[in-house]
Amino acid sequence: MAQFTEDEKIMRRLEQRFNKGVVKYRLIEDGDKILIALSGGKDSLALLELLARRSRILKPKFAVIAVHVGMTNIPYQSDLEYLKGYSEDLGVPFVHYETFFDLSTDTRKSPCFLCSWNRRKALFTVAKEQGCNKIALGHHMDDILETLLMNITFQGAFSTMPPKLVMRKFEMTIIRPMCLVHEADLIEMARILGFRKQIKNCPYESLSNRSNMKDVLYSLEKMNPEARYSLWRSMTNIQEELLPGMNKHDL
């Protein structure tokens, strides 16, 4: 019987979870052309690596292209030569697209929201230009659960980032192929494959609540090691008869 090293076990587990998410939520279909949002962080590099590997199998047959969106008015430095080289070594074409956002246009929104919104608009623009029908984002299971907790806590809404979102208005589908992958495994993957860290210096990063939610999720898992799986199942196990009525005036 073959003996696997610890690193090999990590990579096998990660790829199994990745493939399970792709199949379970029907994220990839024959003939797809998928735009990969490549920020340069560990998550997007892992997404690039995993999708490039899967694109080499016979079925379903799909193509991938990577795009790095640069926000010119934020001091976030990316090693473009590294990203371009990494993509092309995997046989994936690379596109660099620059844009910006004006904080004064909507003072009601946070800088993080405006930056994210404008990056997303740029992704749609490039996807259309390149003839893509899907955009792949590098969100993993932890991201999705943290968003669920954030929306419950701050928005009073039971919602999160779905593995697949069909946007009929834009004739585009957003997919999150790493939806079942744990961030802890991605950290190990970055070490195993030697991902180069990008130079990040976002002046608005401290304003985000996401890092606090990471601590909340960690605390829940200390209380119950299966907490993440319970949270995930809760999103498809909504028992309406045990919840307050739908009357908006209840509170």
Number of beta strands? 6
The low-confidence runs, each spanning 5 or more residues with pLDDT under 50, are none
Secondary-structure element series: HEHEHEHEHEEHHH
Instruction: Give the neighbour order of strands across the main sheet.
Output: 3-2-1-4-6-5
Approximate helicity band: 40-55%
Using only C-alpha atoms, the radius of gyration works out to: 19 Å
Apparent shape: globular
Helical stretch tally: 8
Mean pLDDT: 90
Distance between the termini: 61 Å
| Major sheet details | 6 strands, mixed
Structural class: alpha/beta
**Relative strand content:** 5-15%
Report on this model:
The chain is α/β, with parallel strands linked by helices and 251 residues long. It is 44% helix and 12% strand. It has eight helices and six strands, in the order αβαβαβαβαββααα. The protein has helices at residues 6-24, 42-54, 80-89, 111-130, 141-155, 183-193, 210-223, 227-234, and strands spanning 33-37, 63-71, 94-99, 134-136, 164-167, 172-175. Strands 3-2-1-4-6-5 form a six-stranded mixed β-sheet, with helices on both faces. Helix 3 (80-89) links the parallel strand 2 (63-71) and strand 3. It is globular. The N and C termini lie far apart (61 Å). The model has no long low-confidence stretch (mean pLDDT 90).
